[in-house]
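Summary of Year 1 activities. Much of the first year was spent building the evaluation harness for sequence design. The harness presents a backbone, in tokenized form, and records the residue chosen at every position. We chose the following record to illustrate the format because it has been used consistently in internal testing since the harness was completed.
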């Protein structure tokens, strides 16, 4: 079986969040079972030399919206997977993936339409059986494949329904798609054009990144205006829990860590904590360390953290925050950190720093308003860091009560109500658990050996692909 796996971001070439992690780990996990080719745009900032990315000599020319556009194909083998890269000036010559910090590029429709046309062309030339599309950036490939009569079956994964790729109706002409798609049953959405709808409607199977999220998005509360539409397509909807690359996220060998540890060598986790606290100029170690790592967007529950910041600042804990995104959150967090010496905020995107934080922490704070899957909590548990989460989406599927008798993977602390008070209560529960050292250590050790591997996720996808061909 031949698979083409397409995404707008893939680790280590370009990453803004969990999509890149999965787009790296899943093809890698599938590569020893089926023939996999991964494809992504070749952004200007991708380090071609470091990863041995070279031109294949192949060029495609498309007539899109009255304009002639070309795509140049590059390739590299990474982690045993053949990667193809699509280069086109409009698509690639940008500073970011989707836009400047906190924004979007105005020509994202043209950019990603070009990428989708290239994906459709590659599907044909490679003669693949399955095309696996991810999120709105690749959704257009589903109707394009059909329009062009390409026989490959499509699987479309929704990593986050909040980002749907909605563009003005006029953009339809510029993206090279037949106007017959502009109907309510298809891609029309309140007078605009919605790429996510196209991915859902025209794919053979649709998946979400956790079972709970597949149910949630069928309700108005989490459906982002598409709940009714998703219900119409629920016969082909599956919830498959994401997983993590356990070889990459491995505290016993992670090169980003100052000390390596495992369930049996936990002393070195303490050393990681001490080293990290020193790094952020804290010389007392008695309090538990909470970390928050993520994009600074409303989804991640930052408003609750900010609402409760003065209470948190008085609690016997350290809170270290890493992220970037909306300027509003930058300003509010910066100001809060000035007032509270035990709250430290670091701005930016820093992969190795995030690993040091997962390793150093006692608790991960993840109060997401909604969470399609969430990888942070799985990474945290692997590093012996107990998650404190809002019980939604993938967090519901991966974090069970620390005192539950059943051996459910994993364990932590969660809150159900959607407010800052409930989050603070959960943090207090974490402090109580921290004080009960044998129990705290039992939970920590239990979580470290929970199986959140991408292998399981890959098995599920494989069975879906097999059903299709
Ligand atoms: P999302 O995809 O919604 O951003 P996920 O939980 O699925 O959230 O995945 C987030 C991934 O991005 C994790 O690997 C996390 O460690 C990483 N990450 C998020 N923000 C940062 C940051 N500022 N620096 C380093 N890594 C980050």
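For this record, the design step produced the sequence shown next.
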């Amino acid at each position: 079986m031949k698979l083409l796996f397409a995404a707008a971001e893939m680790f280590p070439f370009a990453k803004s969040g969990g999509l890149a992690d999965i787009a790296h780990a899943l093809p890698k996990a599938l590569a020893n079972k089926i023939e996999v080719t991964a494809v992504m745009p070749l952004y200007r900032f991708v380090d071609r030399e470091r990863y041995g990315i070279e031109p294949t000599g192949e060029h495609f020319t498309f007539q899109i919206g009255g304009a002639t556009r070309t795509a140049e194909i590059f390739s590299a083998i990474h982690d045993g997977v053949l990667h193809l890269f699509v280069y086109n000036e409009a698509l690639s010559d940008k500073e970011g993936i989707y836009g400047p910090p906190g924004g979007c590029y105005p020509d994202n429709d043209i950019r990603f339409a070009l990428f989708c046309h290239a994906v459709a062309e590659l599907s044909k030339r490679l003669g693949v059986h399955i095309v696996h599309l991810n999120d709105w950036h690749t959704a257009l490939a589903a109707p394009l494949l059909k329009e062009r009569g390409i026989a490959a079956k499509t699987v479309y994964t929704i990593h986050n329904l909040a980002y749907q790729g909605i563009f003005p109706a006029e953009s339809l002409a510029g993206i090279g798609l037949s106007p017959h798609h502009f109907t309510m049953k298809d891609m029309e959405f309140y007078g605009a054009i919605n790429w996510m709808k196209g991915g859902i409607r025209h794919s053979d199977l649709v998946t979400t990144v956790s079972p709970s999220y597949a149910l949630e998005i069928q309700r108005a509360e989490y459906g982002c205006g598409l709940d009714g539409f998703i219900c119409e397509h629920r016969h082909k909807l599956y919830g498959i829990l994401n997983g993590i690359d356990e070889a990459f996220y491995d505290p016993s060998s992670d090169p980003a860590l100052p000390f390596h540890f495992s369930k049996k060598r936990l002393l070195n986790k303490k050393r990681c904590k001490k080293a990290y606290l020193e790094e952020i100029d804290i010389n007392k170690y008695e309090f538990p360390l909470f970390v928050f790592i993520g994009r600074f967007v409303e989804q991640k529950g930052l408003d609750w953290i900010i609402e409760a910041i003065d209470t948190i600042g008085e609690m016997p804990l350290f809170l270290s925050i890493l992220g970037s995104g909306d300027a509003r959150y930058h300003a509010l967090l910066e100001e809060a950190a000035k007032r509270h010496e035990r709250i430290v905020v670091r701005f930016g995107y820093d992969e190795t720093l995030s690993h040091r934080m997962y390793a150093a922490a006692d608790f991960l704070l993840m109060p997401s308003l909604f969470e399609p899957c969430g990888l942070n909590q799985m990474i945290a548990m692997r590093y012996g860091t107990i998650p404190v989460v809002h019980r939604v989406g993938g967090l519901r599927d991966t974090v069970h009560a620390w005192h539950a008798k059943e051996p459910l993977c994993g364990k932590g602390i969660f809150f159900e109500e959607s407010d800052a008070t409930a989050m603070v209560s959960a943090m207090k529960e974490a402090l109580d658990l921290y004080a009960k050292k044998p129990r705290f250590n039992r939970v920590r050790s239990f979580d470290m050996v929970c199986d959140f591997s991408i292998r399981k996720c890959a098995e599920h996808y494989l069975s879906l692909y097999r059903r299709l061909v």
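The chain has two domains: 2-245+454-468, 267-448. Quantitative recovery figures across the full test set are reported in Table 2.
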